[in-house]
Amino acid sequence: MTDQDPKSRSGSSRRDFLRGSSLAAATAVLTGPAQVALDEATGAEPEVKVLTGEVSLTLKVNGEEKTCKVEPRSTLLDTLRHRLDITGPKRVCDRASCGACTAIVDGVPVYSCTTLAVTCTGKTIETLESFGTDANSVPHAFHQADGLMCGYCTPGFVTACKAFLDKNPNPTLDEVKKGLDGNICRCGTYMGVLEAALAAAKAMKGA
Ligand code: FES
Ligand code: FES
Fold this sequence. Notes:
Elements: H1 6-10, H2 14-29, H3 32-42, E1 55-61, E2 64-70, H4 76-83, E3 102-105, E4 108-111, E5 124-126, H5 138-144, H6 154-167, H7 173-179, H8 190-204
Parallel strand pairs: 1-5
Antiparallel strand pairs: 1-2, 3-4, 3-5
Helix pairs in contact: 5-8
The structure holds FE2/S2 (inorganic) cluster (2 copies).
One FE2/S2 (inorganic) cluster is lined by residues 148-154, 185-187, 189.
């Protein structure tokens, strides 16, 4: 396990890591009341910002600045799919369990179904639309290894795999298993997924 593996640093799995990233996103929005309490305690005039209706949002997705209007409660998944027509991330469980909605935010794989879009401004967002399909790409490796059946989980696995390999270019099989454990395949194509991940690691190095 490399020192870049989230599990090696924290002792928790990528599933914990992904849940943590979603909670962190929520926390960023929920700090308002705490600030009000602090202002009241110090006698300062409280500044309460209540976001209602739709807000204008600019997100950097796959290298392009894209602007849209969303309600502040909108998730990244809804914003990508319904406002920006980026449909690679899929909605399956919609509750941070399956990983089908995985997107990469500032290099970190997140469950976009439980990440607020407003917390992603100023960050770099990647979805599988940007990965390409050439012989050295992760999507190509999944195709070659037959790493899917129904395909519902596949966009999330491909995205999680890309994020993992970008930080762990020489993984062992065990490291790949841990690195992708935030994603679930109901069809049970795990052997194909693992084979694809190891093949993609080799291909990305030009081996
Ligand atoms: S749809 Fe987001 S984790 Fe399942
Ligand atoms: S291929 Fe069907 S859920 Fe994974």
